[in-house]
Each structure stands twice: as structure tokens, then as C-alpha cells.
Design goal:
This protein has 295 residues and is mostly helical. The protein contains 13 helices and no strands. Helix 3 packs antiparallel against helix 7 and helix 3 runs antiparallel to helix 9. The radius of gyration is 26 Å and the shape is globular. The termini are far apart.
Length: 295
């Protein structure tokens, strides 16, 4: 009985030691996941930290805020610049045009140089453009600095999404976008209301000072809360426009691009036709369509 008792005691002590080691390893793994959004997302289905999500949402929102914040102040701005009312919407068109074109540049640049250096340069352009827009008194100069502002704003749109692609799996990315896009969608809705109040209280230039302040907040959040998600050994040293021809030759990309463009212009096709177009290239879809036609 004494030998059996000793064996039971030894087994109990071994089990306790094993349980203690297992708890320590579990705590270390959970600490690593919480500390770094790369460990939390890359290759797994975990959600990144809330600070990471909020920072990316800020980066995506400030481009939209600058396009809409001064809309209520346009009549006062037209009078101040000495131009006709119909000329003021040109400032929105120029901004959106440069915003779209600049996105083609930031992607390849960030692939070569890293996400954060390119992001910081873009935020600096955005801040300077917004600040000078608030101080200019000539319509032509205002248009030029709006283009600078838009060129900087494109960095947030591109780098924010690139950070998600670097750190999260497809499933985790879908969850992150489900949180970010509702937050970003609020920015063009709230920006005119905030801009109208600021313009009535302080003048239209206050709208652009507000945008410049927003850029500073986004910069501080990116410095403190956003890690460098593209490590040096993962960076691609190739021609800046090397992959564009391959993308443009992809039929699925062209169909989805046409769908989005049609949706934005109010002429998108029905969803059933879109699904048909998107799936037509897959072999399984072609076989199913062939069997259906025979029947």
C-alpha cells in the first residue's frame, strides 16, 4: 500500500507541474497575440487590436473628410475668391481626380520602401495642403493646394488597406472591414455638418484648419499605434508599374471595376447578372452551364 501511495503522489506532482507549464505557455501566447497585431492576424482568424482598427479607420476617413467638409461654405468662399458659384465645385472635382490617380503611386512605393515611411510622407502632404488652403486668397492657388491635399490623402486610403492585407487572413480581413467601413461611412455624413458650424462661427478657413488638425491626430496615432507591417525582407524591388498590365488583363478585375463604376454612376446591372459575370470564368461554372444547356 505504501508503494502504491508513493506512485500516486509522484503522478499527482507530475500532473501539477505539467498543468503549471501549460498555463504559462498559454499566458505567453495570449500576451504575444495581444501585444502585436501581426501575431494576432497573420495566418490566423483572430481580430487585431482595437487601436489598430481605429488607426486604419482614421487613415481611410481623412481623405473623405477633406472632400466634403467645406461644402456648406462654398457660397462664402466664392464671394471671397471673387469667382462665380459654378466654379467652386471644380475644387471637389480636382480633389477627387488627384485622389484617384495618386492611389496608383502609393501602392508600388510602399511595396518598395515600407508602409510607414510612405504613409508619413502622405500625411505631411495632406497637412501642408490643408494648412495652405486655409491661408490662400486666390482661387488658382486654392485649386493647386487642393491637389496637394488630395495627393496626401490618397496615402491613407492605400496604406490603411495594405496594412490589413499584410497582417490579416482573408477571414480576419473581412471582420476588420466590417468594423472599419461603417466608421468610415460616417465621415462624409458628419463632415458637412461640422464644416458648416465651423464656417458660420469662425469663417470658411476654419474648415481646413480642422482638416489639418485631423491629419495631426492621424499622424500621432500612426506613430504610436501602427506597426510597420511590411518587413524589409518582404519588400518588392521592381519597377513601380510592373504589375499593372497583369491586373488590367484580368477579366474578373475588369468586370468588378465596371460594376463599381456603374454603381457609382447609377447604372449598375442586376445582382444576378453580376454574379453570373463574376463566376463565368471558373471551370465549374462552365461545366454546370454546359450540363444545363444539354438538359
Amino acid at each position: 500500500m505504501s508503494e502504491i501511495g508513493l506512485q500516486i503522489c509522484r503522478c499527482s506532482m507530475q500532473y501539477r507541474a505539467f498543468s503549471h507549464e501549460a498555463r504559462l505557455s498559454s499566458m505567453a501566447a495570449s500576451t504575444a497575440i495581444t501585444a502585436c497585431p501581426l501575431a494576432a492576424c497573420n495566418g490566423a482568424h483572430f481580430m487585431p487590436r482595437l487601436s489598430f482598427i481605429l488607426t486604419v479607420a482614421m487613415l481611410n476617413a481623412f481623405g473623405l473628410i477633406a472632400s466634403d467638409v467645406y461644402l456648406p461654405a462654398m457660397p462664402h468662399m466664392a464671394a471671397g475668391f471673387g469667382v462665380a458659384d459654378w466654379q467652386m465645385p471644380q475644387t471637389v472635382s480636382v480633389y477627387l481626380f488627384v485622389l484617384a490617380i495618386a492611389q496608383l503611386v502609393y501602392g508600388p512605393l510602399s511595396d518598395r520602401l515600407g508602409r510607414k515611411p510612405v504613409l508619413f510622407a502622405g500625411i505631411a502632404l495632406y497637412f501642408v495642403g490643408s494648412l495652405v488652403c486655409a491661408m490662400t486668397t486666390h482661387f488658382g492657388a486654392f485649386l493647386a493646394w487642393r491637389m496637394v491635399e488630395a495627393a496626401g490623402a490618397a496615402a491613407g486610403l492605400v496604406i490603411g488597406r495594405a496594412c490589413i492585407a499584410d497582417t490579416c487572413s482573408k477571414q480576419a480581413s473581412a471582420k476588420v472591414y466590417a468594423v472599419i467601413y461603417p466608421l468610415v461611412s460616417l465621415s462624409p455624413a458628419l463632415a458637412p455638418a461640422v464644416g458648416g458650424y465651423l464656417a458660420s462661427a469662425f469663417g470658411w478657413y476654419a474648415d481646413f484648419l480642422f482638416v489639418a488638425g485631423f491629419a495631426l491626430i492621424a499622424l500621432l496615432m500612426a506613430i504610436m499605434l501602427l506597426p510597420e507591417t511590411l518587413l524589409p525582407h518582404d519588400r518588392k524591388h521592381r519597377a513601380p508599374l510592373a504589375g499593372f498590365a497583369q491586373v488590367l488583363r484580368d477579366g474578373t478585375f475588369r468586370r468588378y471595376t465596371g460594376l463599381i463604376a456603374g454603381h457609382m454612376t447609377g447604372s449598375s446591372p442586376p445582382a444576378s447578372r453580376v454574379s453570373y459575370w463574376a463566376d463565368w470564368r471558373s471551370p465549374s461554372s462552365r461545366r454546370a452551364a454546359s450540363q444545363a444547356s444539354r438538359q
